[in-house]
Amino acid sequence: MVAPIWGRRFGDTSEVSEKQTRVVYLGHATIVVEMDGVRILTDPLLRARVGPLTRTSGTPPAETWSEPDAILISHSHWDHLDYGSLKMVGPGTLIVARTGMAGEFARRGFHHVTELEPGDRHTVGSVEIEAVHAEHRGFGPPVGGTEKCLGFILYGSRSIYFAGDTAYFEGMRDFDIGLDLALLPVWGWGPTVHPSEHLDPMGAARAAAVIKPRLAVPIHWGTLHPVGLSWMRPSTRIDPPHQFAQLMRRMAPDTTVRVLPNGGSLVVPPASDRILRRPSH
């Protein structure tokens, strides 16, 4: 069933009890997850402009993302790893990233870094973070190939998959473990998207069909465009999550889709009849 929900733009700053789980979509791949008294921030992009990209809407106010217990970094592309945004959050915040990235973080003044490989786990408070594979490559600034990518699964009173930036891959079938929520990218930051590197609406629906989460929220859309090129196919900053929702009616009808605008939030309800089956490594 598909039932889009629209939260208030950067408006819901109410407290979440330790018994509730809430996600707040701050645009692109920046999400706040509040679960079991732990606040986790993913791929923070909090400034109006980073490199050649600019936000299409206002920047999120600090009260929506401040004082996280951990920051998850999926990979080193400009639209996912912005050192200016990390400095806004605070250099002492724990960063969880792929093996091999700690040295560059240290050179930038960030020394509280935990490195993981797919299958590794790290606990923050009462939430366990598992690194999982992501299928994504490409140019990594300032030169050379990007660092290898990660997705993450968060385990607590709910189970949440943050895909980061990825194309579809057959290993996603391993994530069919009874997840409560999947945060799935459905586009990129430009007028086109390459399915070999990114999930598009069809790829995201295909992923959801094999992962089988109880809820799915489309991410990685509607936030960024190259400077001076906002006029190029503006529909690609609006349509992808709704195309995803339409496809889900046919391809994964048992998963409920929630489309959140920038700043929109969702409380993830418990599921009394769902059993989590953690993958073994």
Question: What's the structural blueprint in terms of helices and strands?
Answer:
Blueprint lengths: L20 E5 L5 E5 L2 E5 L6 E2 L2 E3 L14 E3 L10 H7 L5 E4 L3 H6 L5 E4 L4 E4 L2 E7 L16 E6 L3 E4 L18 E5 L15 H11 L3 E5 L4 E3 L13 H12 L4 E2 L7 E3 L14
For the biggest β-sheet, the strand order reads: 8-7-6-3-2-1-17
- CATH architecture type: 4-Layer Sandwich
Q: Count the strands?
A: 17
Radius of gyration: 17 Å
**How many structural domains does the protein architecture include?**
1
Kindly provide the name of the CATH class: Alpha Beta
Q: Give the CATH superfamily.
A: Ribonuclease Z/Hydroxyacylglutathione hydrolase-like
Give the H and E element order: EEEEEEHEHEEEEEEHEEHEE
Question: Strand count, sense and closure of the main sheet?
Answer: 7 strands, mixed
> Could you say what the CATH topology is called?
Metallo-beta-lactamase, Chain A
Taken from the alpha-carbon principal axes, the silhouette is globular
Structural class: alpha/beta
What is the share of helical residues? 10-25%
Beta-strand portion reads 15-25%
Average pLDDT taken over every residue: 86
- Please, how many helices? 4
Instruction: Point out poorly predicted stretches.
Output: 1-11
**Spatial separation of the terminal alpha carbons:** 33 Å
Give a verbal description of the structure.
This protein has helices spanning 83-89, 102-107, 201-211, 240-251, and strands spanning 21-25, 31-35, 38-42, 49-50, 53-55, 70-72, 95-98, 113-116, 121-124, 127-133, 150-155, 159-162, 181-185, 215-219, 224-226, 256-257, 265-267. By secondary structure, the protein is of the alpha/beta class. It has a single domain, classed as 4-Layer Sandwich (Metallo-beta-lactamase, Chain A), CATH 3.60.15.10. The strands form 3 sheets. The protein has a 7-stranded mixed sheet with strand order 8-7-6-3-2-1-17. A 7-stranded mixed sheet has the order 9-10-11-12-13-14-16, covered by helices on one side. It has a 3-stranded antiparallel sheet with strand order 4-5-15, with no helix packed on it. The relative contact order is 0.19.
